[in-house]
Specification:
It is built from 11 helices and 10 strands. It is an alpha/beta fold. The chain has one domain: Aldolase class I (TIM Barrel, Alpha-Beta Barrel), CATH 3.20.20.70. Strands 1-2-3-4-5-6-7-8-10-9 form a 10-stranded mixed sheet, sandwiched between helices. The longest helix has 15 residues. The relative contact order is 0.13.
Amino acid sequence: MNPELKKILEKQHYAIVGEHSGVKLCHWMRQSLLFNRECYKQTFYGIKSHRCLQMTPAINQCTHTCLFCWRFQGFTEEELKEVDEPEYILDKAISAQRRLITGFKGDPRCDQKKWMEANEPDMLACSLSGEPTLYPKLGEFFEICHKKKITTFLVTNGTTPEILEKLDPLPKQLYVSVVAPNEEVYKKICSPLIPNGWEKLNQTLELLPSLDTRTVIRHTLVKNWNMDDKFIEEYEKLDSKASPLFVEPKGYVFVGYSRKRMNLSNMPSHASVRDFGDKLAESMGYENIMEKSDSRVVLLGKNPKKREISK
């Protein structure tokens, strides 16, 4: 890893793992340990915030340089030059998480039972930074996670359908980020590093119904960019193509390096996210199942009973 990049990431409280992976404590880990507040993934899907390992196996490799992305993008690469082994990444990522949460134990506000459980994560959010599917041993990585009884969530920007089609095993829940209603908006807000990103994304959406796992479409909504009511019909066509179990309209948050590219005015209110979600749900024949105002997110779907994920 580029030493300058590593220095920048560590300053942002990333724990670097090997040559291309990283771990960072989620805001909701702290909230859960100290204040007994849960993230929307716990509310929606039943996973435990304090037992979630937020990591990426491709910290600086991506096919997009999205304007709303919170991470540093100065060294973005399109492929991995050196590849670490899956078991090494998982073991070192868990060790890194344990180091990162060490200081919580001495805080009088910390739930000690939760802290002990947090040292043994049973949920892995494979997202955080970069495009995780660019790690060529992702299937092996998930297989090791599942053998260790760790639930896996994967977030992808959808530009690698050829990888998703062959991925074995699949994660327990697969998120595809659809942050633009059409190719024009896509090129502006995602700033793709590949020439056929929109085509690849649509191939992924067409592939989704054939994948034997839980699927979710996430719309990161950026005010004045991609959440105008005129886009509802276009989003509906994209989402219907994918036929996901759930759709998550989620508001952009003005944090990290995105503040160099966006303005505070681009962060939508929860009310506007909910309004957008209600209109999209009506268009798709879904319903607004649940919402979490402190995360500016709503959950749309057809079957609320399938909400919680099983181990």
